[in-house]
């Protein structure tokens, strides 16, 4: 009986302690941050912000996905100019 490749990849990631990829972590932080901003500000931008984040290649996301998401969300909300080339 052959195993599904996705299951093997999940098992390898689980065993190594890495359950989510860097891109998945980044997207989770961005989505929940954008959702929280939508609820707080009574806007509906979370879906657009998430779509913009999906387009960023994983190899362009900096080492810490949480900090990268924070900077990306600040850029999306207009609090900062685009400080880094990896964004959009």
Describe the structure.
This protein is mainly α and 88 residues long. The protein has one domain (24-88). It has helices at 5-16, 22-41, 46-54, 65-76.
Number of helices: 4
Order of helices and strands: HHHH
Strand coverage percent:
under 5%
Assembly type of the chains comes to single chain
What structural class results from the helix and strand content?
mainly alpha
- Give the N-to-C terminal Cα separation: 44 Å
Low-confidence stretches: none
Radius of gyration: 15 Å
Number of domains: 1
Name the features.
88 residues; mainly alpha; globular
Write the layout of secondary structure elements.
Elements: H1 5-16, H2 22-41, H3 46-54, H4 65-76
Helix pairs in contact: 2-3, 2-4
Characterize this entry briefly.
With 88 residues, this protein is mainly α. The protein contains four helices and no strands.
